[in-house]
Amino acid sequence: MDKLLITGGQALQGRVRASGAKNAALPILAATLLADGPVRLTNVPHLRDINTMLALLGRMGARLERTAEGAVTVQPAALTSFVAPYELVKTMRASILVLGPLVARYGQADVSLPGGCAIGARPVNLHIDGLRALGAEVSVDSGYIRARAKRLKGARLVMEMVSVTGTENLMMAAALADGETLIENAAREPEIADLADFLNAMGARIQGAGTAEIRIQGVERLGGAEYRVMPDRIESGTFLVGAAMTGGCVRVEETRPDCLDAVIQKLREAGGAVEVGPDWIELDMRGRRPRSVDIHTAPHPAFPTDMQAQFCALNAIAEGVGVVTETIFENRFMHVPELQRMGADIRVEGNLAVCHGVGGLTAAPVMATDLRASAGLVLAGLVAAGETMVDRIYHLDRGYETMEAKLSGLGASIERISGGNGTATP
Ligand SMILES: CC(=O)N[C@H]1[C@@H](OP(=O)(O)OP(=O)(O)OC[C@H]2O[C@@H](n3ccc(=O)[nH]c3=O)[C@H](O)[C@@H]2O)O[C@H](CO)[C@@H](O)[C@@H]1O
Ligand SMILES: C=C(OP(=O)(O)O)C(=O)O
């Protein structure tokens, strides 16, 4: 199992390019199943989750080609299987995203239940209820969701809770349904608008994606398309927090500042001088220690839960007391005990983490427990005195493209220690 060895103390300086967004590329890859012609995607990041999604599409019979530059061509015609098996779903929950496209286009889908994960129970009842409302027969047995439908029928879907992948699954299914679908209380994450833009490029008729009300006129067929995946706002935000924590100055290029308003606001509150251009964000914290900030995670456009662990790391070394409230997932503070092992003064009370900033952290061997927790620990390692070894970085590899190379490029002392066969544990 690979690890990261980080020697703390270097301020991050320079420019770094944002990769394509994992959470946009995954639903877009799933949506290629709806097409009856070839799809060419660019800016697809090289990530473990993307490999898993490609393996899943390949196993169903899709023909795939990938170039080193991040282009992927998918020829989805002539699928031979409509199953998302447990061994793939257990390594990546986003496999659930093939459910809507398969049942809409092929009338059948057998998708393993994802089960709980490190950050919470994460049920998929909204995906199932929505497909039933669109006319699918859905049963759950032997750990699999089995959905069948001759042709889905448009319907008014009122989402009981805001769900990102739930909204995406139902939007994809409705794109090929008979008639109009209205999704109310839809998630408003930018990745949903990106998916809708891609579906529209294939011939779908979707309006309102990115707002709480999405209107979809079902069409008979969807064709091939070319599409560029949007930049990763969470990766961008992670580098900016790194700059703030290390007293550095970093410009993230080829990103989308308009998707990061809540994060930029908190970085400014923390004392960062933030400048924004059409496709870049620069944060300058030279000569200053960050101030603690209060964080309250909530669906977009509020502060994203996927940036919470990184801001816990920032608060750990900031001046003052910051209270972090996690409202999306019930178990997303697993980075806290690891930060405590590095000397952080953070107390968790239910869904609150009360962080008293300390003057400095000390290096320790720490263990990553999930994707963003790993990112928080890497950031902590950048400022800790001594050598921090972050174990189980297969979590990090799910969602950060060449993170150590990008951080090295910004002046960090960080090295991947290869652990042999690279087998990943979910
Ligand atoms: C691949 C992807 O895009 N992942 C993102 C997506 O996950 P994901 O789409 O899985 O997260 P959701 O938006 O669905 O989850 C939000 C909340 O709703 C609950 N819920 C969800 C569905 C459901 O059927 N029933 C239910 O109760 C969840 O347990 C959670 O408490 O949005 C999360 C919230 O922004 C992000 O952290 C993830 O990075
Ligand atoms: C929680 C995340 O991803 P997933 O929903 O794929 O587990 C994430 O990207 O932080």
UniProtKB/TrEMBL annotation:
InterPro entries: Enolpyruvate_Tfrase_dom (IPR001986), Enolpyruvate_Tfrase_sf (IPR036968), MurA_subfamily (IPR050068), RNA3'P_cycl/enolpyr_Trfase_a/b (IPR013792), UDP_GlcNAc_COvinyl_MurA (IPR005750)
Sequence positions that bind phosphoenolpyruvate: 22-23
Modification type 2-(S-cysteinyl)pyruvic acid O-phosphothioketal: residues: 117
GO CC term (a single one): cytoplasm
One Pfam family hit: EPSP_synthase
Location of the active site: 117 (proton donor)
Domain Enolpyruvate transferase: 7-407
GO MF, one annotated term: UDP-N-acetylglucosamine 1-carboxyvinyltransferase activity
Enzyme class: transferase
Organism: Thiorhodococcus minor
PANTHER family reported for this sequence: UDP-N-ACETYLGLUCOSAMINE 1-CARBOXYVINYLTRANSFERASE
Binding site for UDP-N-acetyl-alpha-D-glucosamine: 93, 306, 328
Recorded metabolic or biological pathway in which this protein acts: Cell wall biogenesis; peptidoglycan biosynthesis
Catalyses which reaction(s): phosphoenolpyruvate + UDP-N-acetyl-alpha-D-glucosamine = UDP-N-acetyl-3-O-(1-carboxyvinyl)-alpha-D-glucosamine + phosphate
Family stated for the protein in its record: Belongs to the EPSP synthase family. MurA subfamily.
GO biological process, one term: cell division
Function noted in UniProt: Cell wall formation. Adds enolpyruvyl to UDP-N-acetylglucosamine.
The organism's place on the tree of life at top rank: Bacteria
Protein encoded by which gene: murA
Protein location: Cytoplasm
Name of this chain's protein: UDP-N-acetylglucosamine 1-carboxyvinyltransferase
Signal peptide: none
Record key words, sorted: Cell cycle, Cell division, Cell shape, Cell wall biogenesis/degradation, Cytoplasm, Peptidoglycan synthesis, Pyruvate, Transferase
EC number: 2.5.1.7
